[in-house]
Design a protein that fits this description.
single chain, six-stranded mixed beta barrel, 50% helix
Length: 909
């Protein structure tokens, strides 16, 4: 074969019948663009989530910080103390430590900051109601004057000492924030005494309020590192009432003169989470962990301390949040990879069909090349070159477009995946060019059903799928970790199972078709007879179109099941955590406040819950230490009535039964009908009415007892702690009610609503990525399945056209011709749709034991597979509609065939 002839034939292949080639190019370009954009989009999404999670931490938890106990140097005591001598070396050391921060962390860190806090001192005298006791801590900071604005009085100047030995009085000047001074009812110039020390020789100490200030920037991170400066920190003690802990500034140089022998230095380096990148997060986590194990020597003063220097260790809750976020992202990545693997399988099937169509359009050229002496190897090399010319430039262009349009880092996958798709035509074209491909023959007279090689390959595919499924389920749930990456077995197993299902469908499909053919052969009707006969003799289907349809519908159904499982799991976790549409927690919640909340517009019911602490619960011979909760059980039942999946509250808990208090208990305390006692106030008799694993809103995995307040009071028990939890059923705008409840109840930790908690869990970028993956998978799988049907029809078009043209000359109508064309596709479409739907419903259970969805739901328990039939039918219906429209279009096209164009002498019949 001459070089000129070969070059001419190759050029002719590329320019003649361009439609099939352009279709392959379009598929490769679109799929390559999606695969090139996918890693970039994931990196961008995960970076946004990482930054949001880190920025969502309060500053005192986010920043790199640590506490160290320091002492004022002995020689520094006295009036000659200066700020530079006291703090200069300390600050220099902190800047030196900043130079040792790991490389990835350093750009996100700010300059070091610190505060010195003395010991907690109790004030004498009655506290303003509702406070019972007041505590004050002195805080020293050489830069504090730049952070505040005086409202009244002046800044502290130091410590004054009066009296003689044995009766020394020491007065510390202090400045308080506006809210702190108002809460303690302390005016400028007023002196208050500290509770005397146990040592009778110790001086009597006082605190004089010299100034009241407000912060220059109340939102600055500085104020978050010491709660109690801008507002006193309040706590409730069951035995003492409400305690207030306040902090106030003293003169920076007063540190050596204040009676505290040691001060606690709070050191922190502000961390800017907006500069973190998801791709660097695993290494950043490793560096932060290593850095947090280091110890640094620091000292206060001019190096005059004797003995060992204090040791500073730095840490941050950012480490835990990074690990949690990376675990969530690993789970999301595995989920998205699992969803994306399906359309990739459809892509490979479509590429195979496209290559087969190209080969069909090149049949004459291939025949001529073979006649001119081209060997099978030469023929395959020419086809591989043509495939490379079709796929590689399209994939390269798609990769470049994705790099320009989609933010984020691509990584290896962003290049490798499009490259694989770009090379697919170069591999597929030689594969479909089997010996004898240029000849035509009836499929039912060939030898493909007796091919030992094909049987072996198909048996191997099924065996590998079974082995992968067994291995995946035996391994059990493997929690996603920060460095776990994508689990190859988890991603590959569903694809292998789908491939095996396609093989089974191709093998089983001829059996019912042959039965149908024998049935219709006995009846009148040319359409059914000819259609069934052609389906048996020369079926238009093969493994590629079957795989495309089976995998396409399976992906559509599987994605919706996976999504509904995540949604249901997150709802169950949020409900179990909150126990109501709205939950508020405070130091004390009075009955009047509960009643006021219950009257708010949009609130259906409100109830408070009292935590009575832990008590010994004796049931029979069994004693369990359990949490005891008091509430109005009837109202609690109303509050939780509309919540999904909650345990029902038993009725009749508010009345004594034979002198015993009816209770609900956890299943590890006792059983229904058991009697016993709860060790509260000398012990009260109880009878177990109902047993549940958990009551929504109460801690799980710990023994508990739920008692109605009325029955508790009727038993003679008089001691009930103040309620601290408020639950409300909201039928309206949760945001409006949330603000109103916050104004009624002095909350501790704010008011949380079910909508807000679900929004936090579901509204993250990772969850949005899963939603986008589901939608893209549905669209791509449906579109590619439609393309697969079109390609199948185009491949079978010549033979079908010859048959229909011959039948048209014998007198059949155009409508009958459409019916015969429908027979060619409808049976296999119906069979594959049934198989795909069943596979889509079964795969979630297959991967449920290995796919860790807990990071996506926010819970500690793996959610059970949930099927939202409405979503399943919607997704399957959309898929069927796309395929149905495609089949109808190709069938309608069969009426437009012109007899003179189709019929040719010398073609097979």
């Amino acid at each position: 074969m001459s070089r000129f002839a070969t070059r001419t034939l190759v050029q002719r292949q590329l320019v003649v019948d361009r439609g099939a080639a352009l279709l392959v190019v379009a598929v490769v370009f679109v799929v390559s663009a999606l695969l090139a954009a996918w890693p970039r989009a994931i990196d961008h999404i995960f970076t946004e989530e990482l930054r949001a999670q880190i920025e969502g931490l309060p500053h005192f938890a986010r920043d790199l910080s640590g506490d160290v106990t320091v002492s004022a140097p002995p020689s520094s005591r006295g009036a000659e103390v200066t700020e530079d001598r006291l703090y200069g070396r300390f600050e220099a050391t902190l800047h030196e430590i900043a130079g040792r921060v790991p490389q990835l962390v350093r750009p996100a860190l700010g300059d070091p900051e610190y505060q010195l806090a003395g010991s907690v001192r109790e004030l004498l005298g009655p506290a303003p109601p509702p406070l019972r006791f007041m505590y004050v801590t002195a805080v020293a900071d050489p830069h504090y004057a730049d952070r505040i604005r005086l409202v009244d009085g002046q800044l502290p100047s130091g410590v004054t000492v009066a009296g003689e030995v044995g009766s020394v009085e020491r007065t510390v000047e202090i400045a308080l924030a506006v809210n702190t001074a108002a809460r303690l009812d302390w005016t400028v110039g007023e002196v208050r005494q500290f509770v005397p020390a146990a040592d009778p020789l110790a001086p009597t100490e006082y605190a004089r309020l010299t100034g009241i200030f407000e912060p220059v920037d109340a939102e600055a991170a500085y104020w978050a590192h010491h709660a109690g400066i801008l507002d006193p920190r309040e706590e409730y003690d069951p035995d003492r009432g409400i305690l207030a802990y306040a902090r106030g500034f003293v003169a920076p140089t007063a540190v050596p003169a204040v009676s505290e022998e040691a001060w606690t230095a709070r050191v922190w380096y502000p961390l800017d989470g907006s500069r973190l990148l998801a791709g660097e997060a695993p290494e950043l986590l490793s560096q932060l962990r290593a850095f947090s194990t280091q110890a640094y020597e620091v000292e206060l003063g001019g190096g005059e301390n004797i003995g060992a220097h204090p040791v500073l260790r730095l840490g941050s809750s950012t480490i835990d949040r990074l690990e949690t976020t990376l675990t969530r992202q690993a789970s999301a990545t595995a989920t998205m990879a699992l969803i994306a693997a399906g359309p990739v399988g459809v892509v490979l099937a479509v590429v195979m069909l496209g290559s087969k169509l190209v080969l069909e359009r090149r049949r004459r050229t291939v025949t001529l090349l073979t006649a001119r002496g081209a060997s099978p190897l030469q023929l395959r090399c020419l086809l591989a070159m043509e495939g490379a010319l079709l796929g590689v430039p399209a994939a390269a262009l798609a990769t470049a477009a994705a790099a320009m349009l989609v933010p984020g880092r691509a990584g290896i996958l962003g290049i490798a995946l499009p490259a694989v798709v770009g090379l697919a035509p170069a591999i597929a074209l030689p594969l479909v060019a089997r010996p004898g491909a240029a000849r035509t023959e009836r499929a039912d007279l060939g030898h493909r059903w007796r091919s030992r090689v094909r049987w072996s390959v198909e048996a191997l595919a099924v065996a590998v799928a079974v082995a992968a499924a067994v291995s995946l389920n035996r391994r059990g749930l493997v929690a996603a970790g920060p460095a776990s990456g994508i689990d190859p077995l988890l991603v590959a197993t569903p694809m292998l199972v789908m491939l095996a299902a396609g093989v089974v469908v191709v093998r089983v499909y001829p059996v019912p078709v042959a039965m149908l053919h024998r049935l219709v052969r006995r009846r009148a009707g040319v359409v059914a007879f000819v259609g069934a006969t052609r389906t048996v003799r020369d079926p238009a289907v093969g493994l590629a179109p079957v795989l495309a349809l089976v995998i396409g519908l399976a992906v559509a159904v599987f994605s919706t099941v996976l999504w509904s499982t995540v949604q249901t799991g997150s709802t169950s976790h949020a409900v179990a955590q909150l126990g109501a549409d709205l939950r508020a927690q405070a130091l004390v919640i009075s009955a009047e406040q509960v009643a006021e909340v219950a009257t708010l517009p949009g609130v259906d019911a409100a109830v408070s819950v009292t935590q009575q602490g832990r008590a010994d619960v004796t049931v029979g011979n069994r004693v369990e230490r359990a949490h005891v909760y008091l509430t109005d059980t009837e109202t609690l039942g109303k509050v939780q009535a509309d919540l999904p999946g909650v345990a029902p509250i038993a009725e009749g808990l508010d009345r004594l039964r034979h002198g015993a208090v009816p209770v609900m208990v956890s299943d590890d305390v006792g059983g229904a009908g058991d009697v016993g006692t709860v060790d509260i106030g000398g012990g009260i008799p109880i009878t177990v009415i109902s047993v549940e694993s958990q009551i929504a809103g109460l801690p799980a995995n710990e023994p508990w007892v739920l008692i109605d307040r009325m029955a508790f009071a009727a038993s003679g028990s008089w001691y009930e702690r103040p309620a601290r939890i408020l639950l409300a059923a909201v039928d309206g705008a949760p945001g409006v009610v949330e603000a109103q409840v916050a104004g009624i109840v002095r909350t501790e930790g704010g008011v949380r609503t079910l909508d807000r908690v679900l929004g936090d869990v579901r509204g993250g970028p990772a969850t949005a990525g899963i939603v986008a993956s589901v939608l893209v998978a549905l669209v791509v799988a449906g579109a590619l399945s439609a393309v697969a049907v079109l390609l199948t029809q185009f491949i079978a078009a010549p033979a079908r056209g010859r048959l229909l043209s011959q039948l048209r000359t014998l007198g059949i109508s155009g409508r009958q011709a459409q019916g015969i064309a429908t027979w060619e596709t409808a049976p296999v479409v119906l069979v594959t749709l049934v198989a795909g739907a069943g596979l889509g419903l079964g795969v979630p259970w297959l991967v449920a034991g290995a796919l860790d969805l807990r990071p996506l739901t926010g819970g500690r328990v793996q959610p059970a597979v949930m099927i939202d039939w409405a979503l399943v039918f919607m997704a399957a219906g959309l898929f069927v509609l796309i395929v149905g429209i495609t089949v109808a279009a190709t069938v309608a096209f069969s009426r437009r065939l012109r007899l003179g164009v189709v019929l040719r002498v010398g073609e097979d019949s």
